[in-house]
# Entry
Amino acid sequence: MSAVPIAHPARSPRPIRDDKHRHIEIVASRSQRRARPRLLAAIVTVGGLFAILAAQLLLTIATSDGAYEISSLQREHSELARDQQVLVETLQVLGAPQHLAAAAQEMGMVASTSTAYLRLADSVVLGAPAAASASSALRTAPDGSPLIPNRLLTGVPLSGAAGQAALVSPDLTPVEASVAGAPAGPEGPASVPSEQPAAIPSPNTH
Amino acid sequence: MTRRRLALALIAMIAVFGIFVVRLVDIQLVRAEELNTQSLNKRAIAVTTYAARGDIVDRDGVVLAGSVMRFDITVSPKTIPTNPATFTRGSGENKATVSMEQAAAEIAEITGQRPEEVLAVFTEDPESDFEYVSQKVSTEQMRAVRDLGIPGVYFEQRPARIYPDGSVAGNLVGFVGTEGPQNGLEFTEDDCLASTNGSSTYERGADGIRLPGSTVTEQEPIDGGTITTTIDHDLQWTVQQMIAEQALAIGAESATASVTEVKTGQLLALADYPSVDPNNVSGSSPNNMGSLAFSTPYEPGSTFKPMSAAMLIDQGVADPMSQVTVPYRWVSPEGSVIRDAAAHAEQRLTLAGVIQQSSNVGISQLAVRLPSKMRYDYLRAFGIGERTEVDFQGESAGLLSSSWDDQTKYNVSFGQGVSVTGVQMASIFQTLGNGGHRVPLTLVTGCTHADGSVTDAAPTEGRQVVSEAAADTVVEMMETVVTGGGLASQLQIPGYRVAAKSGTAEIASGGRYTSERVVSIAGLAPAEDPQYAVVVTFVKPSTMKTSAAAAPTFKKIMTQVLKTYRVAPSSTPSPDLPTTW
# Structure
């Protein structure tokens, strides 16, 4: 409680109203006014603080939300990666040469041992084409197992006659169904598979 | 406010403050470690990120050895319901109570075990927290078991190795056992193939979701590099099938065949019979797990003669027209006895004829025109007596003695008294076909690391062993074997000029030669500009002991090689070198 100098108002020539509820205000001096912190600054600061806190809260919520999303996406990604791996594995095993050769033989194809080429530029046959015979078929070990084994192929089905039948288009009726084989045109190879022993079925080609 | 009240208030404040400080010090300093680890254990999870072991691929990028992820089904017997031993599955209308026996049966059906086995794992040790139900199951099986929703059953990842082509190139690729790579390229190239698993820790909330920003990666996963081989997998299978069929037909104990690209020294196919299926290692005999073409030397026999002739022509002491008089049995000036394979009357042969008729006497008479030391140096230059640059696991250097007695100096000229491996033979014919320039054999071209950088493995510097003229002349002389020799009809490939040499070598055992044979044919095509060298060998055939046993297989393999690589048929006929005088 320091003594504050109170300026006694001098009697003014104006008549003084007898007002009990006269409001007395201390008017601050100019330097005091300047020293006082601005209201706007205060509002801005506190408001800014609240805004920052609010923003942080929102960001935290968004991040946590993101964490859930990341978790579910990661799960999805690993499941899809597993799917892909299963498919790639299946593809690699089906591409094994033993499987391809056995599947081809199932469809009636054996490897030819003659060196004959068809030059597409001028349709000239180079070399001496000779028909493949049953002796070109793959031989197996005495116990029937493949000579070049692959344990991954156990249980993998070959395409077989059932698959082959499905491939033949139903609306095209083969004219010479009994004589299977490639047309013996002048450019075609001299071999006609119909001379083959019945053991090797030939696909119906056109 | 009196002074006293002020003081009291101050004391009260300090007291409360003091309690807080003490508590703070206690938590933050005294019990800090313990509390930290407690909280971290409850939240932090260590994770191993598996990195894939590198692939081994063939020259076209087809995978010969690949990495896959398999799963172990594990159970925590402590956490499976025991009293009652049931759990509920499904919700609403589909709710069903499933007993653990039924669950075990369901698992067994998927994994192919017996239900009792699975149930035994569940119930054997009720206090255990970890037991294996089934190991190395496939992804589909794991998903099926997971969908059963059995409490207490968990999965672990287990990286595994598959070999999609099976025993095609099985001897070369090798295999991986439980303790790491055991054999073949898997073993020797492990530096490139091995991967480094990543490890990281993260913290998770009570609901199992990763706390954002909490992942600390201690080690990044590094995938293994890819090894690229020079093998063509389709050709490899074809060659393996062909030698296997013939080996069975003639009752041979084993067989090897190699296809080498003459210009580059790359091994396009290197087949062994019998061979191991890396997917089924326990199904093969331990003797068959290496590569015989690398590891097992043999006395080659007459397939050495073209090399002997090349030395003579290179030194200018003989040419295809050099004349010799060849009896069936000849005694050398030193008293050594040389005999031809089959009895015959005295023949007048040129050097070309000696090659065509495969006369031991003829080549012996001519070979000694060069000093033994020079011939020894030539043989070493051709790569005999040292391992090839492939440096395969278990590769043998063969046997070339550095001092020759009076019998050996003749025997070596026709391939007895010296032993070579299948790949050394391939290298000899690569040299002869490449104008006398020996290019190192390569099986692995390089390692492609996960970051894309390539480490080249193959040394490619070659050396000129004999002159181009000498090598080309020898190839022309070998053509006479195909055009007019005893096996001509079985070796000819219509449309192509083929050069070949047959060999029927005796196998030595216990200090003397036995009646067992190693039959082989080695050849080059197309002879006017050789591109491919094929060497086929059958060891100890029982039904046909001459090189006629190997001839049809050589023809089939060479035909297949010419077709695979689209070699144009020869436009010029074989030169008709005179074989007699």
Notes: Residues 274 and 288 of chain B are 6 Å apart (CA to CA). The radius of gyration of chain B is 36 Å.
